[in-house]
Amino acid sequence: MCMYIPIAYANVIELAQSTHEAGLFLDGNSSIIKRLVALTVSAIFYLQASQSTKNQGSSPKPRFYGRAPLVTIFCAAFLLWSWSFLHYPANEGTRMHPLDGLLSAASAQHDAWLQQASASKTLDECTAEYRRRYKRPPPPGFDAWYRYATERSSVVIDDFDNLMDDLHLFWAIRPAEIRKRTHLAFGDWNEVAKLSIRSGKAEIGPEVKPTHRWMLDGVIAMMSNYIDQIPDMDMAFNINDEPRIAIPYDDLQGLLKASAIGPHTAKDTVLNEFSKDRAASWNFLDSSDPETPNGPFTDQSFLPSFHTYGSISCPRSSRAHRSYLWDTRALCTTCFAPHSTGIFLSNWTLSASPCHQPDLAHLHGFYLSPAAFKPSHSLYPIFSQSKANGYADIRYPSPWNYMDKAVYAPSPNASDLHYDPPFSEKSDTLFWRGATSEGLSRFGEWQGMARQRL
């Protein structure tokens, strides 16, 4: 998949160029229980009436009066027994914990996704499926990508939804403007590094900090087996962990409307190869912009970011804009209700959205006090290792896992420093072990950060 990201990105620019030019109870049980309640209440009133009649001496004592307490207790016990019988299944084995239902649904969802992600068995089937899903032909070199993926038994052959979502907005921008914004993003202060590909070779730009060069080295390592398939281009890589591009809602709607035209007009445009003069189109003698001499980014490190960037792409009517939680000690149950079943998370995708969760402003270091945060409210083609919901960065696989930055090498020997005992011998404890790098705490912000709260 990582091979396909730069190819797809280049294809967007190439195709864009051509298009610009061209209840608790069941109803039945509830009815029965109501009748049982009425029966019990009637019996109690009858017994009380009998007691009153005896005291007045106007009628003989009912023959079962002496057993009134016993009858009352029996009716109450019968009512409780009936409720438990109707409310719970008779077979204890048929009871289901909410987690059992969630696990079963998640398993079925996973199986369905896996099946559709690799449904094609041949290149022709894969090409046809690509056309069906994305309404346009695949980019040049798709056959080479297919061979690369199948030779490595990739489980993803047909599903490019995440990639298409990340690239979709760029259909709204002319290719020349995409290239210009790419070069405007480069810079040491911007903390955006340049990676140039020319004639099948990759070169790292001078902007990257020595402490972060390993990221670009990792990207090159990922591309090494197929870099000859990637056309000449420049790519802007975010060297920080935090995402960079957050577009205000109204601007985002305009981009979405404009970007919907590009793929539609390119549905019949077949490109068998990329243009020959791509290298020249990426040559910029002067990447500066007089309107933004310091680049398109602003330094927002250590500042709260939820309302200024984190939720800025949400509709104006959303809770993220309408509500502000002053009591940060109280649990906002209405904030997690839309994506939960009771107290259990049931919709992971929805849970990532900040739009219905104003409490997130106080529940993560990125929103409380990000350690290194230089964002922009304008659309720039920035490649990032990850992003929070609502950001418009282009995701790529993290080089952290390709450069052995954190090697997990437990030892089975009890005398070794990194001894890992059998699972059955481990304690029932859970805690965070590692750096608390999600944010910087200066005035007690650590109390809301996820790792410290765990």
Which labels suit this protein?
globular; mainly alpha; 18 helices; 6% strand; 454 residues
Write the layout of secondary structure elements.
Layout: H1 4-21, H2 27-56, H3 68-87, H4 98-117, H5 123-134, H6 142-151, H7 161-167, H8 175-185, E1 192-198, E2 201-204, H9 213-223, E3 233-238, H10 249-259, H11 261-265, H12 278-281, H13 306-310, H14 319-322, H15 333-336, E4 340-341, E5 344-345, H16 348-351, H17 365-368, E6 382-384, E7 394-395, H18 450-453
Parallel strand pairs: 3-6, 6-7
Antiparallel strand pairs: 1-2, 1-3, 4-5
Helix pairs in contact: 2-3
Major sheet details: 5 strands, mixed
Gross morphology? globular
What order do the strands of the largest sheet run in, or round the barrel if closed?
2-1-3-6-7
Order of helices and strands: HHHHHHHHEEHEHHHHHHEEHHEEH
Count of DSSP helices? Answer: 18
Beta-strand percentage range: 5-15%
Output the radius of gyration. Answer: 32 Å
* Terminal residue distance: 33 Å
Unreliable stretches covering 5 or more consecutive residues: 23-29
Binned, the helix content reads 40-55%
What is the residue-averaged pLDDT? Answer: 83
Counted beta strands: 7
**Structural class by sheet pairing and helices:** mainly alpha
Task: Explain this structure.
With about 450 residues, the chain is mainly α. It contains 18 helices and seven strands. A five-stranded mixed beta sheet has the order 2-1-3-6-7, with helices on both faces. Strands 4-5 form a two-stranded antiparallel sheet. A hairpin with a 2-residue loop joins strand 1 and strand 2. Helix 2 packs antiparallel against helix 3. The protein is globular, with a radius of gyration of 32 Å. The protein starts with a helix and ends with a helix.
